[in-house]
Amino acid sequence: QVQLVESGGGLVQAGDSLRLSCSVSGRSLSSFSMAWFRQFSGKEREFVAQIRGSTGRTTDGDSVKGRFVISRDSARNTLYLQMDNLKPEDTAVYYCAAGDYYSASVRPGEYDYWGQGTQVTVSS
């Protein structure tokens, strides 16, 4: 049984940094393509960043390019999202997701496993 557990969210001020973690159990993280999504209140989930299982290539959403970096530690079976220069508009619940090893998808519907989410709140 695959489980994803996010951690690292919290309340910060604009300009601060946070690092989110997503611990994967039940299967090797390296056997998946992994992604971060976020959900604003009352909105659909938005793509943040993705790392492809087969190549390690990363893709970032337009709103976070140059500020957020996705990475993985296969030895720890953990996915990370380093978030720098946070803005109030980054306030959302952040989810990690696991999908097909070869996938480069930015669509939440194409991911098979999800964590419970972690709240990030950025004050101005």
Keywords:
four-stranded antiparallel sheet, globular
Short recap of the structure:
By secondary structure, this protein is mainly β.
Report, as a whole number of angstroms, the end-to-end distance.
40 Å
The H-and-E topology, N to C, reads as EEEEEEEEEEE
- Number of helical regions: 0
The low-confidence parts are: none
Radius of gyration: 13 Å
Give the class from helix and strand content and strand pairing: mainly beta
The amount of beta strand, in percent, is over 45%
Total beta strands? 11
Kindly state the percentage of residues in helix.
Answer: under 10%
Silhouette: globular
- The mean pLDDT is 97
Sketch the major β-sheet.
7 strands, mixed
Describe this structure in words.
- The chain contains no helices and 11 strands.
- The strands form 2 sheets. Strands 2, 4, 5, 6, 9, 10 and 11 form a 7-stranded mixed β-sheet that branches.
- The mean pLDDT is 97.
- It is mostly beta strands and 124 residues long.
- It is 0% helix and 52% strand.
- The chain is globular, with a radius of gyration of 13 Å.
List the topology elements.
Blueprint: E1 3-7, E2 10-13, E3 18-25, E4 33-39, E5 45-51, E6 58-60, E7 68-73, E8 78-83, E9 92-99, E10 111-114, E11 118-123
Parallel strand pairs: 2-11
Antiparallel strand pairs: 1-3, 3-8, 4-5, 4-9, 5-6, 7-8, 9-10, 9-11
